[in-house]
Design a protein that fits this description.
12 helices; single chain; mainly alpha; globular
Length: about 270
């Protein structure tokens, strides 16, 4: 069994390397790095579905595998289409554009390395999907339905936050202002929060609660929310986005930072 899991892990790694090389080609040819996140989202969806349905030792595909595959596909399609529409309407993503200016003439090579690292960093997410889908047992448990509810809540919350931000930005009266309506009153990044929240579904599905040691691989699903929190809060999510917002909104954004929770929704400060 361990060998099968290691083979699956290697296949996931190789798939991400190839797919992110494709994202680099798209970025270089279009000059719009916004397509990087679009391709990454669809890539994770593709690899995630493949991981969920990966056959083990000729065993038939279980209901849990189909459930996890469906959850991954729905997440990927919703977010991927949203990012694609956004990317089509901008000349470039400000975060990646800042990287390109910093890297200068060496930008193509460093962007390729950056995207390969991004693919490497996606391995824990796909592996969490794999171990959750392959939790032993044919029928669905309460934990499986709870995991589906958690992911559905994450998708719905993120979609609502995205819709509120879009509505705010398309109103000419809000030009130059900071979005602080709806979910954005409670968190400076509610879309990121709900994205992270959805990844809690996989450890909920993957861990065997009656006898945890009967399926120790299930604990590997915890990598998904841990890794996603680190990426969103400390690496490619909040830090570059808030730096860009401070440059474009200045004191208005500083005031927003002072009264609004950074990540987890909380009561706004006076």
């Amino acid at each position: 069994m361990t060998v099968v899991y290691l083979v699956a892990l290697a296949a996931v790694a190789a798939s991400f390397s190839v797919l992110m090389a494709g994202a680099w080609i798209a970025q270089q040819r279009t000059g719009n790095s916004g397509w990087v996140d679009t391709i990454w989202t669809f890539s994770l969806g593709l690899v995630g579905v493949g991981s969920a349905l990966w056959p083990i030792e000729g065993a038939p595909t279980t209901a849990r595998q189909w459930l996890v595959a469906a959850l991954v596909a729905i997440w990927s399609l919703r977010l991927g289409v949203h990012i694609a529409i956004r990317s089509a309407g901008i000349p470039d993503d400000p975060r990646y554009a800042d990287f390109a200016r910093e890297w200068g003439a060496d930008s193509p090579r460093k962007m390729f390395i950056f995207l390969q690292n991004q693919g490497l960093g996606s391995i824990p997410l796909a592996f969490a999907i794999f171990v959750a889908a392959h939790m032993p047992g044919d029928g669905l448990r309460f934990a499986d339905y709870l995991g589906a509810l958690i992911l559905a809540t994450g998708i719905a919350g993120e979609a609502l936050a995205d819709a509120q931000l879009k509505a705010f930005r398309t109103d000419p009266a809000n030009k130059g202002r900071v979005c602080d309506v709806g979910l954005w009153r409670w968190s400076r990044h509610p879309n990121y929060f709900f994205e992270w929240f959805g990844w809690l579904a996989y450890p909920v599905i993957g861990i065997s609660y009656g006898d945890p040691l009967s399926y120790p691989w299930g604990f590997a699903a915890l990598l998904a929310p841990i890794f996603m929190y680190w990426i969103l809060v400390h690496v490619t999510g909040i830090p570059p986005l808030e730096a860009q917002m401070l440059r474009s909104r200045g004191d208005r954004y500083r005031d927003y930072q002072a009264r609004t929770s950074r990540f987890f929704p909380w009561l706004p400060q006076s």
